[in-house]
Amino acid sequence: MIALTWRPLVQSTALMLAPLLGLLCSAMAASAAGLQSELVARGDYLVNGILICGNCHTRRGPSGEILAPQEVRDTALSGGQTWDEAAFKVTAPNITQDKDTGIGDYTDAELRQVLRKGIKRNGARVAVMPSGFYEIMTEHDLDAVIAYLRTLKPVSHAVPAPIYKRAQQHEIPPGGETPYSDAMLNDKIARGFYLATVGLCMECHTPWQSQAFADRLGAGGNEFHGPWGVSVSRNITASNSKGIGDWTDDEIKRAITQGIARNGSKLKPPMSFQYYANVSAADLDAIVAYLRTVPPRD
Ligand code: HEC
Ligand code: HEC
């Protein structure tokens, strides 16, 4: 008797709970999907903004001009610049989801390793790819970049395999040795340093010579050759006479996001203002706040 009444009771409770459980599951799925789309949005913001991945991995215009990510949607990140130097000849590869010519069949672990450590899936150390500047990247931002890369439409475009003539370096800028935590980004100057590091400002604006990060951080002077002729990275230290110490915040922001120098002239490649234009106002403020702390160098 008891068993007979007990069973229908359980069944009917289960029947009553089923829709609730269903709701709960779909709510959980919805919030997981929400988290995933948040991650993808963050990756989109980073990759097409401060990270300037397309500066190298996207083909440029006929005069070597950098095309804004929104101008090149169809071919974005499907392979770009070639460097032919004493130590290597290498082309920035296709990083769309194409399985044959891109990174469609890379695992997340393989992507993490190449992004942060500069080691490709075949064990080779990358040339040019500034992975040492990504050691600082928060776990969340690294996940976001990878999540965004996974959403890229496959584009079939093969680039030549790299030729290495010497062992490649994995240079880590001082202060960028270990991943930042999300909490560290709440401090404005720390956030500015973080963004300027992953955004490669000091990779281009610090002289390419030994000890320069300690002695000549941001002093400029590197030459970039291309169809535009030669451009020379400028002094972005807080020096009043040689750097940007006496520029207003707005002048600095205009140079970063619109490529317009203080005197109104247009900045040449590879200054990547087409990407930095997508950096948020709060992040720009943090970058400027950090630049104000870079010791003046003449
Ligand atoms: C300064 C130029 C440059 C920038 C900036 C750059 N890369 Fe690269 N990247 C390269 C080059 C060149 C290679 C190939 C290196 C080699 O094969 O030795 C490469 C390799 C890679 C690979 C490995 C692909 C493969 O076939 O093994 C991935 C993935 C990648 N980059 C993603 C990114 C992402 C994401 C960003 C932005 C966060 C980025 N890169 C920024 C130049 C760059
Ligand atoms: C890929 C190399 C590269 C990267 C990355 C880069 N710059 Fe530049 N930047 C240059 C070059 C080259 C110039 C000079 C262009 C010219 O003379 O036409 C320049 C010019 C500037 C200027 C103008 C200075 C003046 O005296 O006119 C500022 C300011 C500046 N960069 C700040 C930054 C900041 C901040 C970042 C990071 C968010 C950054 N740059 C990232 C290469 C780079």
UniProtKB/TrEMBL annotation:
<feature type="domain" description="Cytochrome c">
    <location>
        <begin position="187"/>
        <end position="295"/>
    </location>
</feature>
<feature type="signal peptide">
    <location>
        <begin position="1"/>
        <end position="32"/>
    </location>
</feature>
<dbReference type="InterPro" id="IPR036909">
    <property type="entry name" value="Cyt_c-like_dom_sf"/>
</dbReference>
<keyword id="KW-0479">Metal-binding</keyword>
<dbReference type="InterPro" id="IPR051459">
    <property type="entry name" value="Cytochrome_c-type_DH"/>
</dbReference>
<protein>
    <submittedName>
        <fullName>Fructose dehydrogenase cytochrome subunit</fullName>
    </submittedName>
</protein>
<dbReference type="GO" id="GO:0009055">
    <property type="term" value="F:electron transfer activity"/>
</dbReference>
<feature type="domain" description="Cytochrome c">
    <location>
        <begin position="38"/>
        <end position="153"/>
    </location>
</feature>
<dbReference type="InterPro" id="IPR009056">
    <property type="entry name" value="Cyt_c-like_dom"/>
</dbReference>
<dbReference type="GO" id="GO:0046872">
    <property type="term" value="F:metal ion binding"/>
</dbReference>
<dbReference type="GO" id="GO:0020037">
    <property type="term" value="F:heme binding"/>
</dbReference>
<keyword id="KW-0732">Signal</keyword>
<keyword id="KW-0349">Heme</keyword>
<keyword id="KW-0408">Iron</keyword>
